[in-house]
Write a structure and sequence with these properties.
With about 375 residues, the chain is an alpha+beta fold. It is about 30% helix and about 30% strand. The chain has eleven helices and 17 strands. Helix 2 runs parallel beside helix 5 and helix 5 packs across helix 6.
Length: about 375
């Protein structure tokens, strides 16, 4: 009887293994993706939550244009160019194939319109027109793209053009694109442009539709750029924000049509299910009072410049503590928003995040008579 029971138990176990050999537990399972390369990154800290062949050098197709938009946004921020500038299409720009807005030589748009055409319509001809406007030649602009890549310490990136059509020596990686995307978030202009779902060009005669379908399909998506060529297959670098948690996802080399959207959503689902943003202080929260010397007022309030928090795994993140560093006094004149300290967020004695403490309002410098009166009041009490 014992022998029969043992045989029966063995058969049950064998059948169980046959039936469930390919079934993985729901919790703790690693993501499987059809992408040749992929990464999921915290947009604030740069912490990596998932990666697959993230440093592999691959053709990025039109995702290249994230760097194009970054260099352009940097030129706008520095005052080198203005969004209201008139950009005239050259014959060189009008010859570009692939996705385009069919620029005619001599046709003129504002720089902002050209950037929208790049961000929304993935206009290759717009890239060349913008490149020539900012740097004089397309080649000089591409050099700026590579300089920016070096400044960001990107190890697996080299650009040959500003638009992403196949070219020898034109490559990047999922990790490097995530770093570029993280840098882009410092320029609100780029996210504003890449989050636009549609745009009417040429007074409504030419309609642009954003190629990034996550803007419609995935709540919280608000950037960046798709790409496709036969060589690169389907690529997407994107960002999503939910409940204070902003993530960046890059997928490259996805073989299926619209697969770059499906794979990105799968990876985002994993990220938002596992992690959350834990806030320790909201923006503009009072963190202390600082004495003012030689001013028309005696003190100012110190406010947090941005929300202070960190991304943590759900159910964890209890070993956090905050340190406030505040200047004991400040000399007038004082500008609103002037830095007067910082708040540091620690976990296990390691700094996880920090925000500046800034002045809540301006304070003018007091005249000599006013300063003398204040001194006498302090000494004699009248």
């Amino acid at each position: 009887m014992r022998k029969i029971s043992a045989i029966f138990l063995a058969m049950v176990l064998m059948l169980g293994n046959i039936g469930f050999a390919n079934v993985k537990p729901v919790l703790g399972v690693e993501i499987e993706t059809e992408a040749a390369s992929a990464i999921l990154m915290d947009a604030v800290s740069g912490q990596i939550f998932y990666e697959k062949e993230a440093h592999k050098e691959l053709p990025p197709a039109s995702v290249t244009k994230i760097m194009t938009l970054l260099v352009a946004a940097d030129a706008v921020a520095s005052g080198k160019v203005k969004l209201t500038d008139k950009v005239t299409a050259s014959e060189n720009a009008s010859k570009l194939g692939g996705s385009q807005i069919y620029l005619e030589p001599g046709e003129t748009f504002t720089l902002e319109q050209m950037l929208i055409a790049i961000a929304v319509g993935s206009a290759n001809d717009g890239c060349v027109a913008v490149a020539e406007h900012i740097c004089g030649t397309h080649e000089a602009f591409v050099e700026e793209m590579n300089n920016k890549a070096q400044a960001l310490d990107l190890k697996n990136t080299h650009f040959v053009n500003a638009y992403g059509l196949p070219a020898e020596g034109h490559y990047t990686s999922a990790y490097d694109l995530a770093v570029i995307s993280k840098e882009v978030l410092n320029y609100p202009l780029v996210r504003k442009l890449t989050s636009m779902k549609e745009y009417d060009l040429r007074e409504g005669k030419f309609k642009l539709w954003n190629t990034n379908k996550l803007l419609w399909w995935y709540p919280g998506a608000d950037g960046f750029k798709t790409g496709w060529t036969n060589e690169a297959k389907y690529c997407l670098a994107s960002t999503v924000e939910r409940n204070g948690l902003r993530l960046i996802c890059v997928v490259m080399g996805v073989p299926q049509v619209r697969g770059h959207f499906a794979e990105s959503m799968k990876i985002y689902n994993y990220g938002f299910a596992k992690y959350e943003f834990k806030q320790f202080a909201p923006a503009e929260q009072k963190q202390g009072v600082v004495k003012v010397r030689k001013g028309m007022e005696d003190e100012v309030i110190a406010l947090t410049e941005k929300p202070l928090g960190a991304t943590v795994e759900k159910g964890k993140g209890k070993n956090f503590w905050v340190e406030t560093k505040l200047n004991p006094e400040i000399v007038a004149p004082i500008q609103k928003g002037q830095k007067i300290g910082e708040v540091l967020l620690y976990s296990n004695d390691q700094v996880q995040a920090s925000v500046n403490l800034i002045v809540d309002h301006p304070v003018a410098r007091a005249g000599l008579a006013e300063q003398l009166t204040r001194t006498l009041k302090g000494v004699f009490g009248f």
